[in-house]
């Protein structure tokens, strides 16, 4: 591997020797003569060899090439020393005998080349070296052959490694079988792999799992038991599972259970269930810290990371933090210990905390969810489309007063501090930039989002300019317009076109928002609102109650709602996601 530098040095030395032949021959003559005259003869100067300009450049290039090869060889040697072999042995991988080497950061194997009939190895054949990074391995098992019903023992066949493989945005598990029937040999390798896995301190060892059996098509329990639980067991993760029986069950359990024995909390369900578990985690943190939630307070971070296994209809929160709606991918992020801090909003009224959440919609979004909740007896997909179509048929605006505090630019803040020291009079100009701004009028929909809100119907996100942890919210206000123009705006979410390039759509990047409705919603005499006044929907029973869509969960508020964003208040299992692929998935109902 490192013969190239030595070979180059040999060639260069041979060239150098040809240039010094004349000097060596001149030195064979004694500088002092023993002539009878006793006089010293003058030292003869060796004849100088003339070098042309092209030859001089060739000499410099040869010297530079030698130096570069020497540096490359030293670098390779340094990398090789850093990747010093820990273990080395022979295993059969995919029916091929391989030379397997365990290094500090990866497992490398090379097929063993057969010898030729003359006894030598096949020359000129390149060795196909393969490897897997140790940080991608999450489980190791001894592979044995057992009879039916046999629980222990069996004939040892080798070692099986399970590692995480990324294909696009999906994460999957893949097995590598190292076949060797030697008990002692496999035991040594098995212990080393176990020690390596135990060294990953960021990976969870114990999880509290909540499963909502009624989410979407009631598939959450099946998804967890068939796809997720086996992976957790394979990774030696202990789980304590609770199947929720009613709405608010997970919230009540999180207030009471001992969280110190767990490394994370997992929820299997849709957006509404994810919001409930996140709310429970954050509320528990405020209780433990002694925060008064009936006042304007600064919340503390959630004590444990939250993992979301998507099993709902849209799964906006899961898609935003994982980039894809895929239960196995979500499980692999949890197993591998991938963490992402996420901003969270607080929703309060009259200085009383109503809810923690990642996003909210008022107006069209709130009414659609309220109508869908009233028809829970319908299948989820039909219920959602029915609610959208009927709300569009009875489309009407809400008169609101909207106040917001624009996001402070860090660069402007630094300039403000510097200039205020030099000139006090300039501070008044910068203070005006921090004042609240206010707009009012008739609005069809108002969205406040602290995350991009990716989903299949909005692959670019409902708020594509928002990031997970930049401490800001996107305020999107859709003013009153015709039904046809509003539908065009909705359809833009599923296409590549900008959904905000309409004169009736206003967008702002904010830190705080106050929304104060000016007209009652339930006092309208339309067919839609008459249905909401029935006994079956007590959530809309008050004339002054307004429906809010908080992460797919219905919330009521009868007066002004104050929304604040809190940077990195909770940690989710996942990664920072960029914009989704340019796919055009449209909602069939519009």
Q: How would you describe this structure to a colleague?
A:
The structure is a single chain. This protein is α+β, with helices and mostly antiparallel strands and 590 residues long. Helices cover 32% and strands 28% of the residues. It is built from 15 helices and 21 strands. A hairpin with a 2-residue loop joins strand 19 and strand 20. The longest helix has 30 residues. The protein starts with a helix and ends in a 17-residue tail after the last strand.
Query: Approximately how much beta-strand content do the residues carry?
Result: 25-35%
Give the structural class.
Answer: alpha+beta
Strand elements, count:
21
Shape, principal axes of CA atoms? elongated
Mean pLDDT: 79
- From the N-terminal CA to the C-terminal CA, the straight-line distance is 64 Å
Sheet of most strands? 10 strands, antiparallel
Helix content: 25-40%
Oligomeric status: single chain
Question: What Rg is obtained from the alpha carbons, in whole angstroms?
Answer: 35 Å
Q: Helix count? A: 15
* Poorly predicted parts: 1-43, 410-433, 521-542, 579-590
Please render the helix and strand layout as text.
Elements: H1 3-19, H2 21-27, H3 53-82, E1 87-93, E2 96-102, E3 106-111, E4 130-133, E5 137-145, E6 155-167, E7 170-179, H4 183-198, E8 206-211, H5 220-234, E9 238-243, H6 249-256, E10 264-269, H7 271-289, E11 306-310, H8 316-322, H9 327-336, E12 339-349, E13 352-357, E14 359-363, H10 364-374, H11 380-393, E15 398-406, H12 410-422, H13 427-431, E16 437-449, E17 473-479, H14 483-492, E18 505-517, H15 527-532, E19 546-550, E20 553-557, E21 561-573
Parallel strand pairs: 8-9, 8-10, 10-11
Antiparallel strand pairs: 1-2, 2-3, 3-4, 5-6, 6-7, 12-13, 12-21, 14-16, 14-19, 15-16, 15-18, 16-17, 17-18, 18-21, 19-20
């Amino acid at each position: 591997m490192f013969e190239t530098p030595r070979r180059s040095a040999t060639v260069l030395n041979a060239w150098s020797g040809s240039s010094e032949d004349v000097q060596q021959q001149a030195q064979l003559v004694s500088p002092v003569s023993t002539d009878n005259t006793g006089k010293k003869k003058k030292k003869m100067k060796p004849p100088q060899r003339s070098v042309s300009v092209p030859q001089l450049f060739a000499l410099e290039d040869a010297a530079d090439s030698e130096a570069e090869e020497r540096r490359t060889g030293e670098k390779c040697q340094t990398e090789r020393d850093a990747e010093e072999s820990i273990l080395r042995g022979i295993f059969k991988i995919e029916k091929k005998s391989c030379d397997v080497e365990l290094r500090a950061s990866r497992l490398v194997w090379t097929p063993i080349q057969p010898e030729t009939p003359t006894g030598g190895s096949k020359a000129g054949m390149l060795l196909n070296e393969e490897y897997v990074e140790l940080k991608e391995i999450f489980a190791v098992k001894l592979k044995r052959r057992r009879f039916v019903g046999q629980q222990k023992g069996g004939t040892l066949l080798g070692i099986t490694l399970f590692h995480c493989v990324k294909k696009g945005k999906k994460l999957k598990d893949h097995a590598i079988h190292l076949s060797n029937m030697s008990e002692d040999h496999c035991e040594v390798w098995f212990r080393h792999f176990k020690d390596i896995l135990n060294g990953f301190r960021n990976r969870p060892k114990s999880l509290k799992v909540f499963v909502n059996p009624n989410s979407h098509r009631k598939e959450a329990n099946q998804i967890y038991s068939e796809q997720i639980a086996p992976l957790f067991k394979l990774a030696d993760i202990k789980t304590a599972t609770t199947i929720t029986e009613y709405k608010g069950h997970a919230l009540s359990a999180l207030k009471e259970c001992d969280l110190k024995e767990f490394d994370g909390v997992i929820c299997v369900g849709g957006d509404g269930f994810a919001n409930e578990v996140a709310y429970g985690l954050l509320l528990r943190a405020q209780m433990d810290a002694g925060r008064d939630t009936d006042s304007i307070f600064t919340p503390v971070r959630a004590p444990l990371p939250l993992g979301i296994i998507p099993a709902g209809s849209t799964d906006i929160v899961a898609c935003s933090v994982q980039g894809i709606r895929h239960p196995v991918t979500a499980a692999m992020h949890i197993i591998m210990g991938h963490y992402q801090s996420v901003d969270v909003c607080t929703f309060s009224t009259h200085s009383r905390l109503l809810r923690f959440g990642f996003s909210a919609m008022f107006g069209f979004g709130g009414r659609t969810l309220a109508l869908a909740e009233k028809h829970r007896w319908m299948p989820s997909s039909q219920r959602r489309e029915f609610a959208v179509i009927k709300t569009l048929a009875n489309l009407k605006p809400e008169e609101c007063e909207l106040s917001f505090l624009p996001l402070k630019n860090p660069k402007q803040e630094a300039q403000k501090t510097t200039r205020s020291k030099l000139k006090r009079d300039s501070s008044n100009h910068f203070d005006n930039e921090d004042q609240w701004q206010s707009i009012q009028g008739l609005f069809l929909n108002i969205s406040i989002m602290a995350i991009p809100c990716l989903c299949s119907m909005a692959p670019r996100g409902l708020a594509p300019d928002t990031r997970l942890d930049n401490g800001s919210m996107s305020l999107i206000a859709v003013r009153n317009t015709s039904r046809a123009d509003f539908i065009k705006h909705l359809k833009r979410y599923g296409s590549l076109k900008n959904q905000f390039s309409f004169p009736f759509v206003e967008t702002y990047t904010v830190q705080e928002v106050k929304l104060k409705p000016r007209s009652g919603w339930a006092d309208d005499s339309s067919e839609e609102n008459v249905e909401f006044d029935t006994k079956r929907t007590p959530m809309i029973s008050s004339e002054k109650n307004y429906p809010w869509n908080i992460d797919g969960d219905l919330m009521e508020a009868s007066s002004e709602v104050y929304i604040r964003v809190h940077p990195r208040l909770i940690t989710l299992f996942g990664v920072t996601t960029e914009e989704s692929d340019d796919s055009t998935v449209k909602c069939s109902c519009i």
